[in-house]
Specification:
The protein is α/β, with parallel strands linked by helices. It has helices at residues 43-50, 73-78, 96-101, 113-126, 142-155, 172-187, 199-205, 228-236, 295-303, 328-333, 343-346, 354-357, 376-389, 407-419, 438-453, 465-471, 489-498, 502-508; strands at 3-14, 17-28, 32-36, 58-63, 66-68, 81-84, 160-164, 191-195, 208-213, 216-222, 254-264, 270-280, 284-288, 311-318, 321-322, 336-339, 369-370, 373-374, 426-430, 457-462, 474-479, 482-487. The radius of gyration is 25 Å and the shape is globular. The model has no long low-confidence stretch (mean pLDDT 91). The structure holds adenosine-5'-diphosphate and magnesium ion. Adenosine-5'-diphosphate is lined by residues 14, 17, 19, 37, 39-45.
Length: 511
């Protein structure tokens, strides 16, 4: 089989850090090759090298059997290599067609835009990339924007396509659609390098998979002869329990009751329409759903941070008490803890130390005080205990600013703080492992199950179906502001044991 890209001994350092350490790799023509690894493993660096954006310190590269040394992305494009970055690079105020021809031609004004628009339309239909060529990019969904990025590469006659974490922003149906496009491109002879950290996706889409860890290439294996356990072990460097043991448990009284909850924004947009659910002590109620179906509004109504000019209906009861309309402090005082969707915005203060971040919102607790000030010793001991219990890594010095930790370790701090609140009854978790490496996901999952065992009621909102299936006692499918279908305890247990197929079944109720 012909080789599209061949890398030999590629090394790239940033200061003292070896982002790529003697990486050798061959990518077969007309194949889909997956590149996996934890955050910071060096995947983006390697793809930027192939695309000419970064220059290796040493090593050699061949494209289609010819030695190349790209000085810029332009040279890579001329050699038939194209890349879609993790963050799209489209001009929002221009149309699809203008974006696609932008950069390729010198001036977009002198071009027969209409004819080019037609050509783009043809490429789009051929590969399931339909998007209106005349639409402004700012009006497109993320999925559509990604299609524009891919069209742009095809229009430039790219034969080798690199996609960096293309599914991170997509809903399950959009991901399925992207995969169909990638298969059609490979069947036509194009070569695809797809970077991801989701092992299910690797198994679903690739012919071959390469694993990186700490800058080095750990190995390359045919996808058909590997599995999630082996890939996870290669990524993390030790055995990873992909599914934490989740034994059934008797549940007791209802802690959270939500009845026919509705919400309309001040602008009159209906975000929740009759949402009803119950969460009992000792159970994890999972909410499945594509983002934007009411998750954020549900969280803000639960926590009391919603826009008060909006219109609410129905009720929220925690431990028998009506809470709709209470302030966040009043809700917290009832024994409620929340891990928000976006920790950077609302759960950590970047420049504060770990010790301070661990008591955010808990600063009134007596244990942290002595006299009128904080008890430094208590803060320090609390941090040491949490770092140990939640396996927080990267805190080399005493009390470093939280921003100096990796995203996954920051998330462990937030999880530790919220789960260790005294007198907790209800825990609301939104995307608790977003951006977290699989090794650390294992630990967070274990803590969540322990919290359930200790009798907490847990509401889990996640866009990762796998996570929901692994953790939940029951699962509600949220679509357009209401729970449209609920899987019982027995159904979820059977789905979890079946190991495959259940995610698709859930997927049908959320789109
Ligand atoms: N421009 C840069 N300057 C300094 N360090 C960088 C730069 N780009 C990446 N790194 C570091 O190199 C390592 C590999 O990063 P990256 O290739 O982005 O990993 P991945 O894509 O696998 O998450 C990380 O430790 C990252 O912090
Ligand atoms: Mg990356």
């Amino acid at each position: 089989m012909a080789t599209a890209v061949k890398l030999s001994g590629i090394t790239k350092t940033f200061g003292n850090l070896k982002a790529n350490d003697n990486v050798s790799l061959s990518i077969a023509s007309a194949s889909i090759h997956a590149l996996v690894g934890e955050n910071g493993a060096g995947k983006s660096t390697l793809s930027n090298i192939i695309y000419g954006l970064l220059h290796p310190d040493s090593g050699m590269m061949e494209v289609d059997g010819k030695a190349v040394k790209f000085k810029s992305a332009r040279q890579a494009i001329e050699a038939g290599v194209g890349m879609v970055h993790q963050h799209f690079m489209l001009a929002p105020t221009l149309t699809v067609t203008e974006n696609i021809i932008l950069g390729k031609e010198e001036s977009r004004f002198s071009l027969p835009t209409r004819r080019i628009g037609k050509e783009i339309g043809r490429l789009a239909t051929q590969h399931g990339l339909d998007v209106d060529p005349g639409a402004l990019v700012s009006t497109l969904s993320v999925g559509e924007q990604q299609r524009v990025e891919i069209l742009k590469l095809l229009y430039r006659r790219a034969r080798i396509l690199i996609l960096d974490e293309p599914t991170a922003v997509l809903s399950p149906p959009e991901t399925a659609r992207l995969f169909a496009t990638l298969r059609s491109l490979a069947a036509e002879g194009r070569t695809i390098l797809v970077i991801t950290h989701k092992l299910d996706e690797v198994l679903a889409i690739s012919d071959t998979v390469s694993v990186m860890r700490k800058g080095a290439l750990v190995g390359t294996v045919p996808t058909a002869s590997t599995g999630k356990e082996e890939l996870a072990r290669m990524m993390v460097g030790r055995d990873v329990l992909l599914r934490t043991a989740n034994p059934p448990q008797a549940t007791s009284k209802t802690v959270l009751s939500i009845d026919r909850l509705s919400y309309r924004t001040p602008q009159g947009v209906e975000k929740l329409s009759g949402l009803t659910l119950r969460v009992r002590a000792g159970e994890i109620y999972g909410i499945a759903g594509v983002e934007g179906n009411g998750q954020s509004e549900l969280l803000s109504l639960l926590w009391g941070t919603f826009e008060r000019d909006g219109t609410t209906g129905g009720s929220i009861t925690i431990d028998g008490r009506q809470t709709l309309g209470l302030s966040p402090a009043e809700v917290a005082a009832l024994g409620v803890s929340m891990i928000p969707e976006d920790r950077h915005k609302s759960a950590v203060i970047a420049e504060y130390g770990i010790e301070q971040n661990l008591i955010l919102g808990r600063h009134r607790e007596k244990a942290f005080h002595r006299g009128i000030g904080f008890n430094r010793q208590a803060l320090r001991e609390n941090a040491a205990a949490m770092i140990e219990r939640y396996d927080v890594r990267g805190a080399a010095e005493t009390n470093p600013p939280i921003a100096s930790l990796s995203g996954g370790n920051q998330q462990k701090i937030v999880v530790a703080r919220e789960m260790e609140r005294p007198l907790l009854k209800l825990l609301v978790l939104a995307q608790p492992t977003r951006g977290v490496d699989i090794g650390a996901i294992e630990q967070i999952h274990r803590r969540i199950i322990e919290a359930r065992k200790s009798g907490l009621a847990i509401l889990l909102i996640s866009s990762e179906l796998e996570e929901l299936v692994a953790l939940s006692t029951r699962i509600g499918c949220l679509y357009k502001g209401a729970i449209r279908h609920e899987f019982s305890e027995e159904e979820v247990r059977q789905g979890r044991e079946a190991e495959s197929g259940f995610e698709q079944e859930i997927g049908m109720h959320i789109t």
